[in-house]
Every structure is written in structure tokens, then in C-alpha cells.
């Protein structure tokens, strides 16, 4: 799934969350702790999906390439 891909009319902002999930929070500076925890979960999922998952995949491929060269 690509960044912000639309599936059946839904916009995904990460592999786990839709734009609707974020908007439903109605996040404000004075939101309660549970809303902020949910917002952070969405943020972490977005960062992991866009950056860290890709980095992990590249490192895995590089490691596999090195082992193939050695053996």
C-alpha cells in the first residue's frame, strides 16, 4: 500500500490507521491523555510505515546480499 493510498474510498495515513481515525480524535492541546495516546499510536505507526519499515527492508536485503557474496 502506498503513502496515503485510497482503498474503497478510504484514505490510509499508515498501514494501520485511516484519516478518519485521526480526525475522529479531534486532537487539541488540552485533549485528555487517552486521546493523546491514540494520537501518538497513529504517529508512531505512520513513521514506522513510511521510514523504519523501509530501512529495515533495505538492511535485510543488504545483509542477504553480503551473505550471498560470501557463500
Please render the helix and strand layout as text:
Elements: E1 6-7, E2 10-11, H1 19-25, H2 33-70
Strand content: 5-15%
What series of H and E elements makes up the topology?
A: EEHH
By secondary-structure content and strand pairing, the structural class works out as mainly alpha
User: How much helicity do the residues have?
Assistant: 55-70%
Contiguous low-pLDDT stretches (5 residues minimum) are none
Euclidean distance between termini CA atoms:
34 Å
- Nearest-angstrom radius of gyration? 17 Å
State the total count of DSSP E strands.
Answer: 2
Q: Please, what is the average pLDDT?
A: 87
Number of helices: 2
- Main-sheet strand order equals 1-2
C-alpha geometry: elongated
Biggest sheet layout:
2 strands, antiparallel
In short:
Helix content is 63%, strand content 6%. It is mainly α and 71 residues long.
Tell me about this structure.
The two termini are 34 Å apart. Helix content is 63%, strand content 6%. Strand 1 (6-7) and strand 2 form a beta hairpin. The chain has a two-stranded antiparallel sheet. It has helices at residues 19-25, 33-70; strands at 6-7, 10-11. The chain is mainly alpha-helical. The chain contains two helices and two strands, in the order ββαα. The model has no long low-confidence stretch (mean pLDDT 87).
Overview features:
63% helix; 71 residues; mainly alpha; two-stranded antiparallel sheet
